Amino acid sequence: MKRRQFIGLVGGVAALPITARAQQPLAFKRIGVLFGLAESDPEAQSRLAAFREGLRDLKWTEGTNVQIDVRWGNGDAAQVRSFASELVELAPDVILGVNTAPVRALKQATRTLPIVFTGLSDPIGDGIVTNLSKPDGNLTGFSSFDPALAGKWLQLLKEISPAIVRTAVIYNPDTAPHSIFLPALDAAAPSLGIALVRTTVRDAAEIENSIAAMAREPDGSVAVMPDIFTATNRATIIAAVARRRLPAIYPIRYHVLDGGLISYGPDFIDLHRQAASYVDRILKGARPADLPVQTPTKFELVVNLKTSKALGIIIPPTLLARADEVIE
Hints:
The protein is of the alpha/beta class. It has 14 helices and twelve strands. The longest helix has 16 residues, at 42-57. The relative contact order is 0.13. The model is unreliable at 1-22 (pLDDT under 50).
C-alpha cells in the first residue's frame, strides 16, 4: 500500500463517529424505587439487591450512569402514598413499584412517567392494567402469582397432614388480592375433604384471635395468602401458628426462613432481577405499552424441618425429594 493511501485510510477511521469505533457510554439516568415493605426487612433488601445486580449486568452502575432513589413504605398506606408523590416530583426516567399498594399509589400520582411493577398477583383485577399482552398507559411489569397455585397450597397441606379437615384462609380484605385465589381454593377444597374458613384480619389482635379459633377445632390448618399485610405481619402469624401447633402453608420462601412450616410460590428474587431488564429497555427508549406483562416462570418449594419437628409433623420423603430447599 502506498504511503498516501495509508495516511488517507487512517484519517478516514479517525473521522468516523465515536459510536463506530467504540460503544457510546450510556447517558446518565435516574430511577425511582418504591417498596411497600420496611427498609429493615431482610427480604426487601434481598429484592433490592437482585434488582441492582440485574442493572449492573446490563451496564447500569450507580454513580456512573444511573442514580437510584429508594423509598420504603413500611406497610403504611399513607406513607406509601406520600413517597409515591415524592418520587414522581423527582421526575425520574422510570420508577420501579414493588407490590400492589405502591403501584396503585404510583398510578394515581402520575399518568406519564414510566412505571415497571413487580410483586403484583392480579394486575388486571387490581386495576393496574387492562391487558397483559398490551398494557395500556405508562405501566408494565411482572406479575407474581398464578391463581391455580391456591389449589396447590391445599394439596400440599393435605400431603403433609392428611388428617386436616378445615383450613383458615388468612388475608386482609383491604389489601390482599384474595379475589383471584378464593375461587381456586373453593374448587380444590371439596375433593381434598377440606372445609375452608375465610378469615379476614386487619391487625395483630385479629391474627391471634382467628388462629386461636381455628386451633379450638380438631384437625385444623392455616393457609396464608400473599399480601403486603401478611408480609409485614409474618412474624406475628408464624408465632401464633406455632403456639397453636397448627400446620400452615405460606406463599413465599421468606415465611419459611422466618420459621414457617412450608411454602410454595414464585421466586421473588428472580422476579426483581428480571425487572431490571424492563427498566433497561425503558431507559433506552422503549414504551411501557410495548412491553407485555410477564408471568413468573420460576417457582420454589421450601420446607422447614426444624419447624416440622417442633410441630410433630413428619414430612413425607416424596415431598422432601421435590423441595427446592430444606431448612434443617
